[in-house]
Amino acid sequence: MRILLVDDEEELVSALAERLTLRGLAVDWATSGAAALELARERKYDLALIDMKMPKISGIELKRKLEVINPELEFIFMSGHGSASVFEDGTDETGGASFCLLKPVEIEFLLGKIRTLRQRAGDKEKP
Amino acid sequence: MVKFPWIKKPAFWDSSLQGPAAERPHFDFRRMWYRAVFLMLCAALLPFLTLAWFDYRISRQHIENEIVLRADRLLSNTKRTTSYFLDERQAALQFIAQDNSFAQLDDDRRLTRLLNGLSGTIGGFVDLGLFNAEGRQIRYIGPYALKDLDYSQEPWFQSVLVSGSYISDVYLGFREEPHMVIAVRRETEDGSFFVLRATLSTAWFNQQLAHVTEGGFGDSFLINHEGVIQTSSVFYGEVLKRFPLEVPPYEEDTRVLMTQDQWDRPIIMGYSYIPHSPFILLVIGQQEELLRPWLNTRYAVVSFLLVSGLLIMLVIPGVATKLVSDIYRADQERIVALREAAQANKLASLGRMAAGVAHEINNPLAIINEKAGLLWDLLAAQLEAGASREKILGLIDSIHRAVERCAGITRRLLSFARPGEMRIQPVNLAEVIGEVLEFHTKEAEFRDIKVRVEVAADLPILASDRGKLQQIFHNLVSNAFAAMADGGHLHVTATRRDQDHLLITVTDDGHGIAEEDLKRIFEPFYTTKAKKGGTGLGLSVTYGLVQELHGQIRVESAVGIGTRFFITIPWQSTEAVENQGKQDANIAG
């Protein structure tokens, strides 16, 4: 399972990446949409963990662009802006993302979501 | 001004136009009251009084015409009877002179019979006399001893010689009593002549003229052409006295005129020259007397007018007070509603601000979370202390920095002074603009909005209300952000406008404001953003705040190009400073 982590706050993204790495996940991180797209072109990721609100390329826009590169990519959004619709699964606002998590993110909760996605991917591959 | 201590002053009477713009009454109620009372009084009383005046004029004209007509009728009738009376007697005398020879008349018994005959039939005769050609009264039948008197030098005798017949005016004569005579001359066959004369009683005239007096006119009498009174008058003198007024000029018909008597009393005088006689018939009435019935009606009408006028003058101020009080109450309610709405608007913008702040604070919190989490991870993994020491310290530093960031945000929030009471203090405008814009930094970053601030270097420190300035900028900048698309430009400038004022402009290149909206954007509750949660109070509150700082706000906008707000405010509002001084003094006291 290879994860692409994108957030404009470098301090956040670096620490979160390290914590996920410590938990045995392969994580690459970027602080802008452009850098993330570059990484996605170089490597195939299974999951993109993206901040909703970023300058220049917003989270939603980035999702659309990443999907063009890799249509099988799964998405989890993070947001600092609390609004009811953001928490819903796969709503319009998140453009059909699997999950949207409110910052600050509880690591075990995030891992739970990742496990759910991995299981889903495994189920898909089995048949 | 007249004071009525028993009348309670209405609440609006002393309402002042002072105070903050939003809490200021819309109208000068006292002036409104004066205007309403004046206009209503004019509208009610003018037609009323005009009508009364016209009615007075017309009815007076009418009554005068009627009096003139009545006088005219009386005069005509009396003139006819008088004229007929004289003609009849003259004809009778003429007949006797023609029917009898001098010899027949020169006989006391016959003359007595003739006088009795005349008195018994047509009447009015007092005596009868026969005169020879020398003017001597050779026969006389009557109450006076006038026989054998010589009349040859009397004017009436001279006159009868010339014209054949004669009617005298009233005179004293030999008998020393007022009387009048009719005389006729008859030629005899021997070429000589004799004269027959009769004295007429003036009682008949008095009796006739009394009828006229009964007709409503105070005085009616005869004068002769020389102005000597011929029959007794009530007001203008005795018989043979001079009539005090001018003898009216000759007119063939009766004539009635309005004039004044010798005491300057207004009178109605009618007169008529009686034909073939020396008499002028006069009918004189006091206008006051004649107009009395009409005047009585007038008094009733005027009393009614006065009472109605008084009622109108009581009711109108009452109604005006009621109406203006209602408007005043509505205005007071408006002020209260506006105050409440402004409060609601404040809460709404506070809510929006809180949402923004929550978002901003969540980012450093997320960092703290991750750093602390990582710290925990590292310590839990029990890595070698030497190898991880630097890393652990770095993580703790990161946490400190993030906490500092949160503290910065909360400090900024607290620096946003609580709006409300006016508090004049030294204000650095550049600082205030900076504080307000800081709230929008993140949004500007995300939406790629370029913010440019140009504050002139020579701006001195203002003496103003920091909280109000913050609120003004916050409202304008929030509006600009709402109007702009991503990638827009916001330009804020502050320059010295003149000795006492500075000019602030806030310009955006957003969607602009339509012309029909532009006229109304400062009105409370006028909003084009109702669907997006706009209350329509932001700009009206801003307008009020600028006014409270004794400034002015103006807007220019073009749809699709952008909007620019111009705010002029004084360096310091002396009035505001004074108020502040007073407040401080109160606190000190």
Describe what you observe in this structure:
- The complex is a heterodimer of chains A (127) and B (589).
- Chain A is α/β, with parallel strands linked by helices and 127 residues long.
- Chain A has a single domain, classed as Rossmann fold (3-Layer(aba) Sandwich).
- In chain A, 45% of the residues lie in helices and 20% in strands.
- Residues 84-92 of chain A have low confidence and may be disordered.
- Among the domains of chain B are: 340-415, Helix Hairpins, CATH 1.10.287; 419-588, 2-Layer Sandwich (Heat Shock Protein 90), CATH 3.30.565.10.
- A 5-stranded antiparallel beta sheet of chain B has the order 2-1-5-4-3, with helices on both faces.
- In chain B, a hairpin with a 5-residue loop joins strand 8 and strand 9 (279-286).
- At the A-B interface, helix 1 of A face helix 7 and helix 8 of B.
Task: Give the helix/strand layout.
The complex is a heterodimer of chains A (127) and B (589).
Chain A: E1 2-6, H1 10-22, E2 26-30, H2 33-42, E3 47-51, H3 59-69, E4 74-79, H4 84-87, E5 99-102, H5 107-125
Chain B: H1 29-99, H2 102-105, H3 108-120, E1 125-131, E2 137-141, H4 155-163, E3 165-167, E4 180-187, E5 193-200, H5 203-214, E6 219-224, E7 255-260, E8 266-273, E9 279-286, H6 287-290, H7 292-380, H8 385-415, E10 424-427, H9 429-438, H10 441-447, E11 450-455, E12 462-465, H11 466-483, E13 489-496, E14 501-508, H12 515-518, H13 538-548, E15 552-558, E16 562-570, H14 574-588
Parallel strand pairs in B: 11-13
Antiparallel strand pairs in B: 1-2, 1-5, 3-4, 4-5, 6-9, 7-8, 8-9, 10-12, 13-14, 14-16, 15-16
Helix pairs in contact in B: 1-5, 1-7, 7-8, 9-11, 11-13
CATH class of one domain in chain B: Alpha Beta
Strand content of chain A: 15-25%
The tally of helices of chain A reads 5
Q: How is the biggest beta sheet of chain A arranged?
A: 5 strands, parallel
Task: Briefly note the structural class of the backbone of chain B.
Answer: alpha+beta
Report strand order across the widest sheet of chain B: 2-1-5-4-3
- The low-confidence parts of chain B are 574-589
Radius of gyration of chain B: 57 Å
Name the CATH superfamily assignment of chain A: Response regulator
- Total beta-strand segments of chain A: 5
Q: What shape does the CA trace of chain A take?
A: globular
Rg of chain A from C-alpha positions?
13 Å
- Low-confidence residue ranges of chain A: 84-92
CATH architecture of chain A: 3-Layer(aba) Sandwich
Structural class computed from helices and strand pairing of chain A: alpha/beta
